[in-house]
Queue: 2 jobs
Job 1
Amino acid sequence: MIYDTIIIGAGAAGLLCATRTGGRTLVLDHAKRPGEKIRISGGGRCNFTNMYCEPGNFLGQNRHFHKSALSRFGPWDFVAKLDQAGINWHEKTLGQLFCDDKATQIVELLVSEAKATGAEIRLNCSVQSIAHDGQVFVLTTPHGPVQAHALVLATGGKSIPKMGATGFAYDIARQFGHEITETRPGLVPFTFPEGRFAPLSGLSLPVRVWNARARFEEALLFTHRGLSGPAILQISSYWREGESVTIDLTAGISDGRDLLTALRDQRQRAGRRNLTTELGQFLPAKLVDFLAPELGLSGNLADQSDTRLREICDALANWTVTPSGTEGYRTAEVTLGGVATSGLDSKTMMSKHQDGLYFIGECVDVTGWLGGFNFQWAWASAHAAGTAIAAR
Ligand code: FAD
């Protein structure tokens, strides 16, 4: 039999697309279970969208490409879907929406909706090759060939190879004449030479972090291998090998000027107080002790001139570090880059090179910030392709 649509990838994008295509739809996935990344995301509660989703929350070579799909399927469209299914949700912080209960509720919802429209989901099935014979797509699988008029690539990016992530969509895109924008790990912890931050491992504090391209204000987490936490994951998507990032460690203390005023006042009241002890009132004491040799923090408050106190506050507000690298695809939440958007129609996600061929979700060169934006892109691009296919 010839299917109307074959979707490769039963992840976030593939499953939502299957709820839209109608006709005879087959979803293939080489994994044992559908929607594995949904299941593990957001600590098992899935940060499924962000209520403040804006085009500026996405990276990609074309800064406008994603606008069309996002304008036709926004955060509230997905929320409405959950409300209708009785799946409760809440805002955690910064507009990030999570399930109250379990992320698997979303997987179950999408699978049952896809099946209700007649879609067939075939798991444990890898695709060995794809060709277009001029009329239909012919896919070779270990269970024999399957054919379809429309083919959707929803196989995600390279992040977390242990979970079966592959560069499959990029290979197929190249086969059909598409360009691939350089891929790199995104939303990923920074690494530093062995053990640099080991003494601080587990310590977290609110910071501002920036480089020439972006700026974020969230929490930083010290780890055995380096730096992590939402602030670092965010800036990692804007970072290149060899570059440094600047961190304002005083961001949680209202602002750096207040710290200076407080230190000056305290110098007057209790000049014999140790500088590091005093700084420990504002920042984690462990961090102050760790930074003391690097920033030359020593002596009593009375020993510090106004200029010196200002220098100290500036140094804490502009702590510059140069990561040696990132943890790579092993732990990256997303893959930056991917199928170049110049080869895709932004309204339908269809290939400009091959009629009936679509690319959706993470494999496309559209990457969201941390905070539910990547699922939102998966839903929106899947809706765009699925509705376009249904209308064929
Ligand atoms: P995926 O969900 O990765 O689905 C791709 C599917 O294709 C998989 O089922 C895979 O098995 C299948 N596949 C791959 N290659 C082949 C092949 N060759 N043949 C057959 N099948 C194949 N984003 C958020 O917005 N909020 C979060 O809370 C969040 N948390 C995350 C936590 C972690 C640990 C990770 C790794 C990512 C997280 N993300 C989050 C990112 C989000 O999971 C992805 O952006 C999203 O899943 C992309 O959807 P997708 O459908 O394009 O790809």
Job 2
Amino acid sequence: MKGVIVLGTAGSGKTTFTANFSRWLNGNFLIKSCPVNLDPGASSLPYEPSYDIRDIISVEDLMRRENLGPNGAIVRAADLIVDRSEDIVESLTSLDCDTLIIDTPGQMEIFAFRPTGRALCERLSRGMRLLSIYLGDYDPKRDLEDLLSSAFLAKILELKLGVKVIPVLNKSDLWGGRDFSDVWEAVLRGEMSVLEGRNGVYADALQDLLKAISSFRSPIRVIPISAKYFQGFGEVFDSLNEAWCSCGDMT
Ligand code: GDP
Ligand code: MG
């Protein structure tokens, strides 16, 4: 079995990608791809999940039963996911599916900054060949600092989760015909040229951050996609296959 964990900040398009990529895989290849929901706070989903975490842990239930506010309930849900991770992974690995596309909590902090993500990824990696996709969310109105923090987050997640991260830049349909993935690539490679025209203390600090990013250099290609309009999925699939081939056998 293969698995793809879909990561990204709130609103980056994780749920849209999970729904449409899995639909696309099923339509184009003889692959049984199943969307999985690991977001205990999801209200409605644009796909029919093969497994839904809300059947056992739901933010809405926790708010009602334990009288918690929304953030308290999200944190509580994250801790419960760790407690139940053996059961969750057991249910996922026994699904009748070739490839799981795994949607994660809207608030990525749960995965990035708490034990939840690592606990699940470690256990999932024992039962399947697991990769992750990090969805960057970019439109031309954003600053370089936004791309930098996003690039850092992708790297931190790779270190923290112990799973290879494939960087993808979503919402390309909003770029007005330009391709911004090369800017993110340059940031991930730590190229100083992205700082052109910036001076002062912040420019120095940004330079140090770029150096730090380039120090955990890995071969980087950022794939531009539009999850909403099914664009760029072929390249994502090629990139996943390449990583799967290089990290194990093909069974
Ligand atoms: P999540 O919080 O990461 O799960 O994000 P969602 O999948 O719920 O998407 C958040 C918002 O971004 C929704 O309004 C989506 O319709 C929108 N969205 C997602 N992908 C795209 C895309 O490729 N292009 C555009 N224009 N909007 C998108
Ligand atoms: Mg979502």
